[in-house]
TrEMBL record:
Keyword list, A-Z: Signal
Classification of source organism: Bacteria, Bacillati, Actinomycetota, Actinomycetes, Kitasatosporales
Region forming the signal peptide: 1-18
UniProt-listed InterPro entries: Bact_solute-bd_prot1 (IPR050490)
Database matches in PROSITE patterns: PROKAR_LIPOPROTEIN
Record-linked PANTHER family: ARABINOSE-BINDING PROTEIN-RELATED (PTHR43649), SN-GLYCEROL-3-PHOSPHATE-BINDING PERIPLASMIC PROTEIN UGPB (PTHR43649:SF31)
Domain of life: Bacteria
Listed name of the protein: Sugar ABC transporter substrate-binding protein
Length: 545
């Protein structure tokens, strides 16, 4: 799965994935902004992390990154904010990516109305479909009419993104750096790794990360179909290959892939032992794409494609249509963002058991798992008066209210009796209206969200399965060492560089090119910025360490 797809897919359920450093990418328009490098800049301290009090989990977290698990909903909810962020008279315009269907207008949308009432602000919400996000953002960033808040989500590589942020958006360092964040206690609950994954721009803090678990995403599987075909967690790579072929009989496909999934290459490359895109060790910078492990993964995927294990529409199907095929059993697995687990479980409707695949084992290789950068995306605030900026931060602080609070329940579940009902176990279960009016179709949670626990209302067994899965894979998590680093070359040319990789992977796995052609693809990637970016990341890393 591509880096933008991971973050993107995560989205469908609150989801996504690793992309280039969040604040390294902005528009081809007149961003200006000058150099965004952090080298030789005094770095604003990260916000002082102050964990929020919360309910005791049923399944314990670990320091490595296993999430706290809740098999039941907290009995008593608390208030996380003392008062509404607004006075009921202010209006703000916001924009985010979306993976859902267009929301109903606010006049007929009870979820939207309830959120506006709770915030004390009339929110004018613009949502941009995933498929249109890159072009829409290019137009937006080259124009003069900016929303008050913009979410950069989905893992896209947008040219000169950081320059745009630096020149057109508010420097939030004085509001959030160090102890200043304590004015916004729910934002102070965002762990430091999420801020680090987002990164600074020229030493300053311009965005607020939307925290995600350290687990990037997963290959979600139809448990019964995979096990019938011979699947076992941690099986040998050759046996996984045979299992995928067996699970693809009778017009079924073991492996699904969307038009932006590129055959799930990030998963397979890392399970073959390739680094998580960029590795910096002892002063040496190694990229994923030039390694022998990456080429071995290409060969492995090519063989599975030739054997018929991949969806025949793998290079053209949309992520939304892929989900439909996964839910109805046409495809037996689907790479998706970690936050999409609950929406996938709901979409399946008990037709089969949702689980996640543990990496297969390649002879002579140590499989690693892709660590999330720690955030789905980040939100910026356009330049404004100090009072206006504080209003935006109060709104974002409300949206970051932690699990176990009344605010969290409203944003994540809606209004009791309208969008959800408590079942006999005390879990908030969506009503038919709640399946339409919710945080997926009106993604307030992509502006800001609380640190996420493992909790799936109505699916206690799924919480247990995925907690067990996390315990198996989290010890193998490997971070992408370029997160938080700046490269002017990567800012300018990252999108075209990524296109070279994705086109090359698609051509080779689909059989249009030979495996031996990868060397030429890699050389093209190097010449179009890969080699220069490597040098710049090395300098940034040295300056930061």
């Amino acid at each position: 799965m591509s880096r933008r797809t991971l973050l993107r897919s995560i989205a469908v359920g609150g989801a996504a994935v690793a992309a280039p450093s969040l604040l390294t990418a902005c528009s081809t328009g007149s961003g200006g902004g000058g150099s965004v490098s952090n080298a030789n800049k005094k770095a604003a301290p990260w916000p002082a992390y102050t964990p929020a009090d919360g309910p005791k989990p049923d399944l314990a977290p670990t320091a490595e990154g296993v999430q706290p698990g809740f098999t039941r909903y907290p009995e008593k909810l608390v208030r996380a904010t003392a008062e509404k962020p607004g006075n009921g008279k202010q209006k703000i315009k916001v924009m985010t990516i979306t993976y859902g269907t267009p929301p109903k207008p606010v006049g007929s949308n009870k979820y939207w109305q309830a959120m506006n009432e709770a915030l004390g602000v009339e929110v004018e919400f613009s949502v941009v479909p995933d498929a249109d996000f890159r072009s829409k953002m290019s137009t937006l960033m080259s124009g003069d009419d900016l929303p008050d808040m913009i979410n950069f989500g989905g893992g896209y590589v947008l040219p000169r993104e950081s320059q745009f942020v630096k020149s057109r958006c508010e420097d939030l360092s004085d509001h959030l750096s160090g102890d200043a964040v304590k004015d916004y206690p729910n934002l102070a609950n965002i762990p430091t790794y999420a801020w680090e994954g987002m990164g600074r721009v020229a030493g300053r803090i311009y965005g607020l990360p939307i925290e995600r678990a350290k687990v990037q995403g997963a290959m979600f599987i139809n448990k019964e179909a995979f096990e019938k075909a011979g699947y076992k967690p941690g099986m040998a790579a050759a046996d996984f290959q045979a299992m995928a072929r067996e699970a693809s009989r009778n017009k079924k496909s073991a492996l699904g892939a969307s038009s932006v999934g590129f055959f799930g290459y990030l998963y397979h490359a890392m399970w073959h032992g390739a680094p998580n895109q960029w590795q910096i060790k002892n002063g040496k910078v190694t990229d994923m794409f030039g390694t022998d492990e990456f080429k071995a993964a290409l060969e492995y995927m090519s063989k599975m494609r030739k054997a018929g294990s991949y969806n025949s529409d793998a290079t053209s199907i949309s992520q939304v249509d892929l989900k439909t095929q996964f839910y109805n059993g046409t495809v037996r697995s689907m790479t998706d963002g970690w936050g999409a687990a609950i929406s996938n479980a709901q979409g399946i409707k008990d037709e089969f058991t949702l689980d996640a695949a543990v990496p297969y084992v390649v002879d002579g290789a140590t499989p690693v798992y892709q660590q999330n950068r720690g955030c789905f995306g980040y939100t910026v605030i356009k330049k404004a008066s100090k009072d206006r900026v504080k209003l935006m931060l109060r709104v974002l602080d409300w949206l970051a209210s932690p699990f176990g609070s009344k605010e969290y329940e409203l944003m994540h579940s809606g209004v009791e009796g309208t969008h959800f009902e408590y079942d006999k176990s005390g879990d908030p279960i969506p009503t038919s209206l709640g399946l339409v009016e919710n945080r997926t179709n009106l993604p307030f949670a992509y502006l800001m969200d609380a640190p996420q626990p493992l909790y799936f209302p109505g699916f206690a067994d799924l919480t247990k399965r995925l907690h067990t899965w996390e315990k198996a894979v989290v010890p193998n998590l490997v971070r992408d060492d370029h997160w938080g680093l700046m490269s002017d070359t990567y800012n300018r040319q990252g999108a075209s560089m990524q296109q070279v990789i994705e086109d090359g992977v698609t051509a080779i796995v689909s059989g249009r090119k030979k495996l031996s052609d990868w060397d030429a693809v890699y050389k093209k990637w190097q010449s179009q910025g890969g080699e220069k970016a490597r040098e710049e990341f090395a300098k940034e890393y040295e300056a930061a360490h």
